[in-house]
Amino acid sequence: MKKSEVKLISILLVLILAVFGGTARMRPVFEHSYAPLPPVVSEPAEPSSPAEPSQPSDPGENTPEVETTPEPVPESEFFTINMIGDCTLASVSYYQGTAQGYDTVINGDWAYPFSLTAELFADDDLTFANLECSLTDSNNRTDKTFTFKCSPDYANIMVEGNVEFVTLANNHVLDYGQEGYQDTKDALDAVNIGYAGRDEYAIYETESGLRVGVYALSFGTTAQVKAGMEALKALEPDFIIAAMHWGDEGSYTVNADQITLAHACIDEGADFVYGSHPHTLQPYELYKGKYIYYSMGNWTFGGNTDPRDNDTFILRLTLEKTPDGEVSVIEREHIPAACSGVENGNDYRPVLYEEGSEEYKRVLSKLDGSFTGQNLSIGYEYSNNE
User: Fold this and answer.
1) DSSP string, 166-219
2) Half-sphere exposure of 69 toward its Cβ, with a 13 Å CA cutoff?
């Protein structure tokens, strides 16, 4: 056999082993990277024929070069979270059943309230809101000025709106007592919407694999924040949202208690603070590199049949998860909107403002703190403990 034929057979044997050998296959490991190919051992060359003595050759002449596949560099992952304000899926009892009432306008069409905006939330990783009403059939109303309840099947409004998670830390989930509170949780469970209640925490894992931790509190203390955040951090979420219900109704300015609690949330490990209750937009703050949105305003809001301030917005966050597991907000977008599509009255159907319009600019001014309008006057006595 000629030397060239021997070399060719050797090469073919090596390649066959490299391709079909069980130990030579690449195996997937975490973060979409791959383990390097294991070393391939070449077959020894066939002895030379006595009639054709072998000639000296360079070392390794019969060992083919095997191309190794470089291990891919792990890449960052990116996620989108949309946040909206108060969703009160009912009018006060006085207006229920009237032409202006939320139940009459909706008329069983669960898709209606989000019909102009649901597509904006369809392809994100998480849409987050404040659900400020009781989903219950109970008639055991708490003795307070305003109470809001609707049938448990109204939870389908959130489903049709592409909302995946709600905070229940507010002053209306107990409008029908503990019974109504539990009914609300059961209604959300039935349609697979995540939630965190008053002074409660939860982990929500998105379909894309992001573990979001939420700690929720209504008019609480820094001691509650510390305890709640410690318990939540023990579950090792990727990203922590502190959902705080606080502040003065109708105010465009942030009070000292809000600032104290917000800073405590960040100090204890929150990555983002979501605020609700004032029913108006308030300025955001950047504290220790983390964002605090003190009040997200209203979204589909049955609490007022003719609101004086329709301004609201969608907050769109882009998160980056680096290969070492660190998650941070790398981009924010403010999308100005109105909580009602009509000038007089309330159709309970949010609509986007035209970019560049006076209304659009007004929303942005409320968020950046340059708005100079007067606070709204709330015409009833209100207790933060309700």
Assistant:
1) EE--SSSTTTTHHHHHHHHHHHHHHTT-EEE-TTEEEEEE-TTS-EEEEEEEES
2) 13
Percentage of the chain lying above the pLDDT 70 cut:
81
Give the containing element (helix H, strand E) for 336: strand 327-338
So where are the chain's domains?
Answer: 1-74, 77-368
Pairing of strands 77-88, 311-321: antiparallel
Instruction: Please check the confidence at residue 61 and state whether its pLDDT lies above 80.
Output: no
Q: Identify the CATH class of 77-368.
A: alpha beta
Side chain identity, residue 12? L
Burial label, 350 (beta-carbon count in 10 A; 0-12, 13-18, 19+)? buried
Mean pLDDT, the chain, integer:
86
Q: Which residues pair with 340 in a beta bridge?
A: none
d(CA 186, CA 201): 17
Asked if residue 35 has pLDDT above 70, the reply is: no
Closest CA to 148 of 91, 100, 95, 197: 91
